[in-house]
Amino acid sequence: MQKLGFVEGDRIRIRKKTDSGVVVYEGIVMPTASRKKDIVIKLDNGYNVGIRPENVEIEVISKAEVLREGIKGEKQIRKGKENLPILSILSTGGTIASKVDYRTGAVSPQFSTEDILEAIPELGQIGDIKGKVIYSILSENMRAEYWRKLAAEVYNEIKNGAEGIIVTHGTDTMGYTAAALSFMVQTPVPIVLVGSQRSADRPSSDAAMNAICAAKVACSDLAEVVVVMHGSTSDNFCFIHRGTKVRKMHTSARDAFQSVNDVPIGKVYYDTSNIEKIRLEFLSAYKKRGEKELELKDKFEEKCCLVKFYPGADPAILDFFVEQGYKGIVLEGTGLGHVSAEWIPGVARAIERGISVVMTSQCLYGTICDRVYDTGRDLLHAGIIEGDDMLPETALVKLMWVLGQTTDMEEVRHLMHENIAGEIKGRSVKEKVHLEI
């Protein structure tokens, strides 16, 4: 590349002569495998293209050092106008905090909180921003011990005067973290998790809009843990989802997040022309700012697992977790909450060994009822705990949290049926809220 006058990270324009004429390409130079001689650039539409260097004219538009200016150097956090609410942004990584790594060509979580503010200066018009990097990881690498540290950081920020918390997070496991914070932190202010499905280097990125909408929610009178993400494929509004009722329902769509067995708490109507015109509409009841005293309960029992039942699944898997010393098992059963008859003795053995076993459904929508069919009744007789209408991942996180508070099996049963953070709706919500309500 250097022989051609450019290096990785440079922005170049390539004019390539073809049989049908001259084709022009413009973009950022990406790494290539050493055995290949193609020039690979990332186009402005977010896609990469490989171009053979024959019959080309190359113009360097800007150098990599210029492109990275402000990323490597020290940055001041943008302060808002006077009398704006104090908002703390806690960054954990994920796509919203990612950029192209010019060594590998991959997208990796390398942006700091300051980088996010540099990229989205509108946040400084909404709040007086403080920022801190807690982790710089992709969310599949999140662990229970990381939830505890994050909860402690959130608690300390609120204790030290933050009027709203924004947690930037990868989308893949955001629902788990939102549930964990919902149980660990009793909050008098908004705690808003936000991410993006597409990194900031792509023109279709949802990062800026999601972050701006999250900041608006962090200034509201809501006082719960919520997830704020695109509500449609267009840039027109975001939904406010309760942290214990939200799930990522699509691998890549910008409106991937939906509330399950509940309606969203509200909507944030986005206005690209004027930040002041962004408005909130609340759709259901919610805890309000100042209703609860700040409290941290961050003890977790990590030896819990989520097991998905499927036809023909070997019940010996339950014995494995028993022998490994697990304290809690959440089953993702079929329909109303069933496993095959051959699993029931294994469930009974686990419960007899002092392991709490909770039943949820793969159907996601609807509630568990093990009183309809014989298999369900046998599970109840064995001592299964019905997971009501909780999402399987929420039930797992809740069980981990409950077992951190008590080891008494009857108390565990009681707490699993108690609606602590909006995780149990109490009735089935069949409608899927999507574009409009």
Strand residues, percent? 25-35%
Q: Give the strand line-up of the largest sheet.
A: 9-6-10-12-13-14-17-18
Q: Helix coverage percent of residues?
A: 10-25%
Tally of helical segments: 11
Q: What spatial form do the alpha-carbon principal axes imply? A: globular
Per DSSP E runs of 2 or more residues, the count of β-strands stands at 23
Helix/strand class? alpha/beta
For the record, the CATH class of the largest domain is Alpha Beta
- What would the CATH topology of the largest domain be? Rossmann fold
Largest sheet: 8 strands, mixed
> Which architecture of the largest domain per CATH?
3-Layer(aba) Sandwich
- Our count of domains comes out at 3
The CATH superfamily name of the largest domain is L-asparaginase, N-terminal domain
